[in-house]
Amino acid sequence: MFKQLKDNYANWVYVVGGFLLLELFVFNPGLIFSLLVSIGMMYISKKSLQGGIGKILFWVGLLLLIVSILNMITVKIILLTILAYYLFQLFQKKNTTDVIKPIIKDKETETLTEEPIIKKKSLFTNSFYNRNITPDHVYEWNDINIQCGITNTTVDLSYTVLPEGETVIMIKNIVGDVKLYIPYDMEVSINHSVLFGSYHIFGEEEENVWNKNVSIRTANFDQAETRVKIFTTFIAGSLEVKRI
User: Fold this and answer.
1) What is the number of other CB atoms lying within 10 angstroms of the CB of residue 42?
2) What single DSSP character describes residue 26?
3) For residue 216, is pLDDT > 50?
4) What would the pLDDT profile of 134-176 be if each residue is shown by its tens digit?
5) SS3 annotation, 93-131
6) Which of 68, 65, 72, 21 is closest to 40 using CA atoms?
7) Whole-angstrom Cα distance, residue 161 to residue 180?
8) Which of 119, 160, 185, 222 has the highest count of CB atoms within 10 angstroms of its CB?
9) CA distance 231 to 45
10) How far is CA 95 from the centre of its chain?
11) 57 and 41 Cβ atoms separated by less than 8 Å
12) What's the sign of the alpha-carbon dihedral 39, 19, 89, 102?
């Protein structure tokens, strides 16, 4: 059942993605220019400009991006479909009589079937604008998996002790910069995907890259007992990975 739900979800993603690409490249290619201009304005405001001019350029770019997305016919259809679905669910709920049934649990069965779990506090949480930065003092490590809007993220691994095995850092950004500071004795694998931006990974660097995927790992990564896997995905932004 779960596999079927997963397949259905994937099929819907492919269908919606296909319609979006069809609209952008066939029916309304002018939107591509608007999207690139708005993303470029936000990237430049975060990267190069400070003060009032940078803030004005950022918010103008963000407004242009929102307007461009909302002007897409596919997005309008999706929003109307979601609205119709929730209205239908609300109507169904009002016309359904709630039936309350007692739930009887056997204590012995409950003790045997329930699996103990450990819940840890995440270092970062998903955020649209707030900056993410690790503490400048010793802290307890927990794997990072975040999705951000327009923000900068800094991760310093020199103030923590990583567990044996494989540690994962996964950061997805719309617009922003990510800086990762890695101790000299730590083995690392980096997989970076960006639509527009730049990267500086140890000795490798490139400016003004366009629609690129970069995969770099240190020489002894596969043999290391403690190692770090880093996955970063940006629409626009820069990645810096350096030793500290």
Assistant:
1) 26
2) I
3) yes
4) 998 999 898 999 988 888 899 999 999 998 889 999 999 888 8
5) HHCCCCCCCCCCCCHHHHHHHCCCCCCCCCCCCCECCCC
6) 65
7) 15
8) 160
9) 25
10) 39
11) yes
12) negative
pTM (2 d.p.): 0.60
Helix axis angle, 73-94 relative to 51-70, nearest 10°? Answer: 70
The set of residues, in sequence order, having a beta carbon less than 8 Å from that of 160 and lying 6+ positions away, is 134, 138, 139, 140, 141
- Under 8 Å between Cβ of 192 and 199: yes
Residues 123, 132: Cα–Cα separation, whole Å: 9
pLDDT tens readout for residues 168-203: 999 998 888 899 999 998 999 999 999 888 999 998
Integer Cα distance of 25 and 207 in angstroms: 27
- Which residues partner with 219 through β-bridges? none
Strands 165-182, 144-147: pairing is parallel
Residues belonging to the chain: 244
Distance CA 142, CA 169 (A): 9
